[in-house]
Amino acid sequence: MTLVENPRPAPDHAVSRLRTTRLAASSKPYLARGSGLVRCVGCRLLASHCLCDLRPQVPTQAGMCLLMGDVEALKPTNTGWLVADVVADTWAFGWSRTAVDPALLALLADPQWQPYVVFPGEFVAPERVVNALPEPVDANASAGARKPLFVLLDGTWSEARKMFRKSPYLDAFPVLSLQPEQVASNYRLRRSTHDGHFCTSEVAALCLALAGEAHAAQALAAWLDAFTTHYLSVRRSAPLDQDTPAHHLLRQLAAARCHPLR
Questions:
Q1: Confidence of residue 2 (pLDDT cuts 50, 70, 90)
Q2: Of 62, 115, 215, 226, which is least packed with CB atoms within 10 Å of its CB?
Q3: What is the 3-state secondary structure (H, E, C) of the chain?
Q4: Averaged pLDDT, 9-26
Q5: Strand 147-154 with 63-68, pairing
């Protein structure tokens, strides 16, 4: 993937930093589909289809901890990047069976956070499974309240299962089993072998909604939808439609950010 500087710099968030670290450690370049294209450093889209001006910024009380498969941060279709775009309190760590980043362990032990490992409940001992949070989080929560930290296993389904089974430092935490049966996945960038699977940003949006962060959940869903529209217009050599509901919502958020209510 060839990246080019554009008026907006690359975002200084966890997934962007992990990508830089992963690239520095690589002995050979990672060649994804469309690796010869010139992409924006901020949104990873073709420079002519840049979406940076519409990147939403929504304050949240909840946090996200991404455990990422070896090459996930390098993939232009990775949606963990989109989560970090929207949720300021996002951390990203490369997963390894044999080594654990001390910063990850410190985050999980931080008393301000209550970690929840997000994973299907049917694969977990029932006593660990929860389907809801104790109470919605808001800015008026008491000083001693612990904020939810959603631990998302970002990789293929087989990678996620391996992460879950072979990460004993996660065993002490409750497993949040989402119930998205009434919601259809809109993910169109990569094929899944399981119809009921959701991409990482969709899972994060469901978690935000469960935590009472409806505004952030809506913004993240719109960000994924707009990103997908731009990405697929390049892949399919189709006209770019910027008149979608997602684009309208992102423009409203951008306008509110530039002209906040007084």
A1: very low
A2: 215
A3: CEEECCCCCCCCCHHHHHHHHHHHHCCCCCCCCCCCCEEECCCCCEHHHCCHHHCCCCCCCCEEEEEECCCHHHCCCCCHHHHHHHCCCEEEEECCCCCCCHHHHHHHHCCCEEEEEECCHHHCCHHHEECCCCCCCCCCCCCCCCEEEEEEEECCHHHHHHHHHCCHHHCCCCEECCCCCCCCCCCCCCCCCCCCCCCHHHHHHHHHHHCCCHHHHHHHHHHHHHHHHHHHHHHCCCCCCCCCHHHHHHHHHHHHHHCCCC
A4: 87
A5: parallel
Residue 167 pLDDT class (50, 70, 90 cuts): very high
Main-chain dihedrals φ then ψ at residue 16, nearest 5 degrees: -60, -45
Q: What is the residue whose two structure tokens read 């073709």?
A: 46
Cut 0.90: pTM above it: no
- CB-CB contact of 151 with 186 (8 Å): no
The two structure tokens encoding residue 72 = 């996930």
Cα distances (Å, whole numbers) of residue 132 to 8, 116, 120, 136, 210: 38, 10, 13, 9, 7
For residue 255, the model assigns a pLDDT of 85
Give the residue among 186, 181, 168 at the shortest CA–CA distance from 227.
186
Residue with tokens 């993910």: 187
pLDDT at residue 142 greater than cutoff 70:
no
Tell me which of 34-38, 136-140, 162-166, 176-180 is least confident.
136-140
